Amino acid sequence: MLITGASGALGRALALYHAGPDTVLSLWGRNEVRLADTAEAARTAGAEASERSLDLTDCDAAVAALVAEDSETAFDVVYLVAGIGDVCPADALVEPPEQVARMVQTNFTAPAAMATAIAQRMAERGRGRIVIIGSAAGHHALPSAASYAASKAGLAHFADALRIAMKPHGVSVVLVAPGFIASGANKRPMAIPVEVAARRIAQAAERGKRHYVTPWPFTALRLLEKLLPTFLRDRVLAALKP
């Protein structure tokens, strides 16, 4: 099993949810210290865990590493969790171009390319599961976080298309769109504990859900936005602050 973003809160929680005897985990992350801590915790739980530190802005390297690891020991499940978030600086009208480029590269280009690479290999084996972590923000046009919302929206459409393409070949593709997740000091309204989010995500993936949103109020918010007149929706979104 591969889990990217394992040095982050959700990736770590997913790793520990799955960790146990007879479980082999390949854990990827940007922060070497936190990644090593996650791997050690997984080993303590009885899993065999390896670590790989890399930045997904180097998409070619990420895909090459994925193919190399899968060739050595085939992945049955791949969680593409890694991503970054940022907002428009308070003193700017729009996000800096370099911020937009990095956001799209990390949140869309790399996970989409990696999903394509592993989907092809899983299809040849006739089995496998790909879990793509999007965001509830991908359902909304957020002026304060335009590139983040757009990168997650693009990832959602990509995941749905890949799911349709892979279904006849025994490969399931699950898109997860979390809302706010509480971890450490990061606590916001409607946030759920990261351990609860990880459990729900893993169970939804095991059931082969097409699209899973957690917690449920974010589904309601998506439906509410669709019901609002465009002018009112635009005013509400423009008023939102990070």
Overview of this protein structure:
The protein has 242 residues and is of the alpha/beta class. The protein contains 8 helices and 9 strands. It has a 7-stranded parallel β-sheet, sandwiched between helices. Helix 1 packs across helix 6 and helix 4 packs parallel to helix 5. The longest helix is centred in the middle third of the chain and has 29 residues. The two termini are 34 Å apart.
What is the first-to-last residue Cα distance? 34 Å
Class by helix and strand content?
alpha/beta
Strand order of the largest sheet: 3-2-1-4-5-6-9
Radius of gyration: 18 Å
Total of helices? 8
What level of helicity do the residues show? 40-55%
Give the biggest sheet: 7 strands, parallel
Order of helices and strands: EHEHEHEHEHEEEHEHH
Average pLDDT taken over every residue: 87
Shape: globular
Pick out the low-confidence regions: none
Strand proportion, as a percent range, falls in 15-25%
Strands, total number:
9
